């Protein structure tokens, strides 16, 4: 397989279309046409990670965090980012990062945290907007089934736990082709009326190319009439963070002790304990201070995240417990998630979980 073919698999799972605007995802270093020898899967790409890739004969590193985040103006090896990139280039090792594209996936980072905590009835904490589009097209009655199926095959018409969803309305369309036209129905230069079905479907924004490709292939008309609208609807299966429920209530101290052991946290910084049972839990891997109000609004008893600052803890306002379990600790199982997914798709080369500990924080 080529590097690009591996990228296609990853981005079918976590489309980079849904990465946050500030992020830097995708192929950061390397030639996407190269054949993969082996791939190293890691949370972070550092010099030590590249050394491990060299030792294990991997020419592709699949990383959660991007080593290149802001622009590089020089490559002189004066800092850890430049040294890592230079070493990868010298050893012909490609680096790919997925980061917030995977954060935003329902079966992504936060689902993994929820799984480790045994949470049930999971829902996205901050559902994403700008990710759902609506297509309306007008099709002759006898071609409606063919076009509708083609749109469904491309991934259109899926809403939550339902697929093959569409709205259909029959009416009469009119058209007149000019002298350069080649109408499938009717004759050029003459107004023609045709019984048509207006087919309406919704689809994820990242599938637009595939949806339109199937529409044009299946539609009988020389000129296809269609409309596309971006919807403001929240996407309940895409977005940041997650909420879920424990099977049984547990006291706060016992739950925090469980979290500490599950994630191997050196310590957990938390806001004031409220002496209330924990049932509903909100989680957001990595830096999650921006979601504190969302966790409160969701009715969470506790919010598990990382990188909280001093004043962030005041925002608990005795409505929930805020728990900072550490950035690395909250996202450490992400590489296992990527490994598990790719293992089911790839058998032509070795996938290797990185052994390098990339946690920059130590505890006494």
From TrEMBL:
Q: Which Pfam family is one of those matched by this entry?
A: DUF34_NIF3
Entry's Gene Ontology cellular component terms = cytoplasm
Looking up InterPro entries in the UniProt record yields: DUF34/NIF3 (IPR002678), DUF34/NIF3_bac (IPR017221), DUF34/NIF3_sf (IPR036069), N-reg_PII/ATP_PRibTrfase_C (IPR015867)
The terms under GO molecular function for this entry are:
metal ion binding
Q: What are the binding positions for a divalent metal cation in this chain?
A: 65, 103, 327, 331
Indicate the secretion signal residues. none
Q: Keywords in UniProt for this one? A: Metal-binding
Similarity comment: family membership: Belongs to the GTP cyclohydrolase I type 2/NIF3 family.
Q: How does it assemble?
A: Homohexamer.
What is the name attached to this protein's record?
GTP cyclohydrolase 1 type 2 homolog
Q: Which organism is it from?
A: Christiangramia crocea
């Amino acid at each position: 397989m080529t590097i690009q073919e591996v990228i296609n698999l990853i981005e079918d799972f976590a489309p980079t279309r849904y990465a946050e605007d500030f992020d830097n995802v995708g192929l950061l270093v390397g030639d996407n046409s190269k054949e993969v020898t082996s791939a190293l899967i890691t949370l972070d790409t550092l010099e030590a990670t590249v050394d491990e890739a060299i030792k294990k004969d991997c020419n592709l590193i699949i990383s959660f965090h991007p080593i290149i985040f802001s622009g590089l103006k020089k490559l002189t090896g004066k800092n850890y980012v430049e040294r890592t990139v230079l070493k990868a280039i010298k050893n012909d090792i490609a680096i790919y990062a997925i980061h917030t594209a995977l954060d935003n996936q329902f079966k992504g980072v936060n689902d993994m945290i929820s799984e480790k905590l045994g949470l049930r009835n999971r829902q996205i904490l901050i559902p994403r907007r700008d990710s759902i589009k609506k297509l309306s097209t007008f099709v002759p009655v006898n071609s409606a089934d063919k076009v509708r199926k083609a749109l469904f095959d491309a991934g259109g018409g899926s809403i939550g736990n339902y697929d093959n969803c569409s709205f259909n309305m029959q009416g009469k369309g009119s058209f007149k082709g000019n002298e350069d036209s080649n109408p499938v129905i009717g004759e050029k230069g003459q107004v023609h009326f045709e019984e048509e079905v207006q087919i309406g479907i919704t689809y994820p924004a990242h599938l637009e190319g595939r949806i339109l490709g199937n529409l044009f292939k299946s539609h009988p008309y020389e000129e296809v009439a269609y409309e596309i609208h971006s919807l403001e609807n929240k996407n309940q299966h895409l977005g940041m963070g997650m909420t879920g429920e424990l099977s049984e209530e547990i006291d706060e101290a016992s739950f925090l002790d469980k979290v500490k052991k599950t994630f191997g946290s050196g310590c957990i910084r938390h806001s004031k304990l409220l002496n209330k049972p924990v049932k509903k839990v909100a989680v957001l891997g990595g830096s999650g201070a921006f979601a504190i109000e969302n966790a409160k609004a969701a009715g969470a008893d506790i919010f598990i995240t990382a990188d909280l600052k001093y004043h962030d803890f005041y925002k608990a306002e005795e409505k929930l417990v805020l728990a900072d379990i550490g950035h690395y600790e909250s996202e450490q199982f992400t590489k296992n998630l990527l490994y598990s997914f790719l293992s089911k798709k790839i058998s032509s080369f070795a996938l290797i979980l990185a052994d390098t500990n990339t946690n920059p924080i130590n505890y006494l």
